[in-house]
Amino acid sequence: MGLRSFLTDAWSWLNYKPVMAGTHDGRPHRALAPELGASWLPDDAVRRLAAYKLLAAYDSNQAGELAALAGNESAAERREFGEPSAFVDTALAHMLGKNQQIIVPGAEHASDDDPAPEAIAAAEVQQRLRDWAEAELLPLRMQAAERKAVLLGDGIYLLAWDPSKNRVRLKTYDPGFYFPVLEDDADPGDFPTRVHLAWETPEDPKRGVKAKLRRITYELGPIISPTRSVTAPGGWDGREPDEDGAEDLLPGRGNMSLLETGVIERIYPWAPDRPSAVTCYLTDAEWLLEDLRHGQSLDDLPLDRATFRTRADGATLHKLDLQIDFLPIVHISNSVADGEHFGQSSLAKVMQVLDELAETDTDSAKASATTGAPIIGLAGARAEVDRVTGRPRPLAVQPGTVFQLSDGGRMDVLDTSGQLAELRARTEEVRDRAAVNARLPAVSLGTVDPSDVPSGYALQLSLGPLDSLVDSMRLARAHKYVLLLKLVQRLHQAGQAEGWPVGETLAAQLVFGPHTPTDRTGILDEVVKGVTANVLSLETGVRMLQDAGYPIEDAREEVRRIQDRAAPREVQTHAVVPNSHATHPMREATP
User: Taking the complete model, does pTM exceed 0.85, yes or no?
Assistant: First the structure.
């Protein structure tokens, strides 16, 4: 009967868009993304990639253009003034805060008089991670990945060891290239054991390059005998067991064989007391699109038609053992996992409001055209006749124009300024509705005059929705950045980088700075009064100044400096001021 089904999933908030259900089977319209019809694309990824494409169109003011391609001809005149991009940038700025700092718990005690070995080790790891973050431009890469996460709902980090630079390299990927292999009964918080990064490269007829599909696969599996790169007689590159190395299983790398079960285990530097039988394999291959048949999934492409890439040292990237027991990929989710592996965009709940705002802006633009160049009706005016066609020429209204009217003639002007004022008020109303639903108060968007705020307490109350938004976004990312910094430590250990000893990796945290402006002068005055009156300790006061944004790197070291500078001043004061109980010599001489 052609009845449509009611679909509810992670991207059902886009069901009202015709381009998201443009066909009878519910698949997105081909105008949204022609590549969504690719044979290799998994069915469960079609709606996700279509949502990414639609959100990217809103971010670049191309939503009207996309709707026009889907058949809505009137959408070509749609006015888009960048509100979606402004919302994304505002949410991103508040989520990241003014600064980000790597903290290893326990490192603050390294400056004690008799620090424990654990505190010294924590301080060393903290400094090494901070040096790595500075060399790898971590804040810039976070900006790139986190903007994708806020806009699209997901962000991807990829870690890899670089022997030439002797450090871990960090790279960001578009989430549209991310295809995890998820188990049906897996917990959404668990990380998959097999992940693909895949994309198409278009053909180039001028250079004779055909359209290709590239797939990079990271997967966990049992450790097997060592392999080496080979080239088959037909020119097919691959790997085969290394007979010479298989005899002793490369004991120098930490491999050992359990003869009773035949399982090969390896001792990793981050777990010297716990042998592991798991390792990570890397495969990087390309296929010609013409060699792929319909129905072949991304997870099961024919390897006999693949062309495997090679590493800088000549190793073929086909089931290459990376000598690690984890996947070097970190998936950032914009929202807390609630039965879904993928996150939700910050624009998800306000998409229809943004459409209403764009339509109101379009109507305002049309009304302003008739207000600035009003429609004029003339009665009793003689129009000039074109000598060639014999038809009256249209009248042009411009400054200095004079019309000669006959007796009883008049000129009427259509005034649309009232409608324009109403549309402008409607625009402000819709914009405020979008800000409320997105939990981005007007003060955070910069649309409120500071003089209109009655007090700082009222300002703090107005920022309440923003505080809850930032807290939820940071909560969704907290454990992911702990995992990222842990993988950075382990890859340095696996690469035997200088200064990274063998042993258990420490749990490092990425602490985001304050997301709202603070009254630094008021906090400083409060700390001075509290410490002077002995109602606040000096340590607490210094931490309050640190949280307010003062450039204090180490709170305990700052307290030590303050005490060292105050001690000589106290000694000098006691030396100059006489004892109040002693008798003054002039008083003794006075009769």
Answer: no
